[in-house]
């Protein structure tokens, strides 16, 4: 009887160990998949924004051939941005480990707005700015890259002249609204662009894209507090 009980206990132990090993393996696979997805998203969003800005500066340099002062300024900005892009390419895979990144998310958002929307009329308002440091750093990084991807999509596809941005933070979570007066959605079959949907998934957020009151597109991202 004791031997039989020992055998049953041994069998139960083997099965338990097998389940634990399977669970750990599946957990590692899921973790690796999420890391690869984040790296791919970071590369797409961070480098895509910089390359688009370089292209816009190149156009500015072309238009300034008769104005040496503006031409030199554009070329210098291209050189600086190219240098930062090279650094970003090296750091993208380690972006989640950089302690200084997104320490001041409000300042980062304002800087990117001024840089990317320099040629457009834009309004930016942030409510509850003191709550931004309470957001986990990884989520702050994802939120900034989501924001930059939205602005890049507006510049590339919307042909807008005005952009309105509102970031509201309460005890319930945050809501980011980005509205433009551009051409609106052309492909009705894919209401939420894939890059926007991917970044929202990394944030565990809900995103909605609809027709804005200003004729263009309105993107609303909602992240609930946990």
What spatial order of strands do you see in the largest sheet?
1-2-3-5-4
Helix content: 55-70%
How many DSSP-defined strands?
Answer: 5
Average pLDDT metric: 80
Order of helices and strands: HHHEHEEHEE
Number of helices: 5
The portion of residues forming beta strands comes to: 15-25%
| Rg, nearest Å | 23 Å
The residue ranges in which pLDDT falls below 50 over 5 or more consecutive positions are: none
Structural class: alpha+beta
Largest sheet descriptor? 5 strands, mixed
Distance from N terminus to C terminus (CA atoms, Å) equals 52 Å
Outline: elongated
Architecture blueprint of SSEs:
Blueprint: H1 2-63, H2 68-91, H3 105-116, E1 121-127, H4 137-158, E2 162-170, E3 173-180, H5 194-202, E4 206-211, E5 217-224
Parallel strand pairs: 1-2
Antiparallel strand pairs: 2-3, 3-5, 4-5
Helix pairs in contact: 1-2, 1-4, 1-5, 3-4, 4-5
Give keywords.
226 residues; alpha+beta; five-stranded mixed sheet; 5 strands
Describe it for me?
The protein has 226 residues and is an alpha+beta fold. It contains five helices and five strands, in the order αααβαββαββ. Strands 1-2-3-5-4 form a five-stranded mixed β-sheet, with helices on one face. The radius of gyration is 23 Å and the shape is elongated. The termini are far apart.
Summarize the structure.
This protein has 226 residues and is an alpha+beta fold.
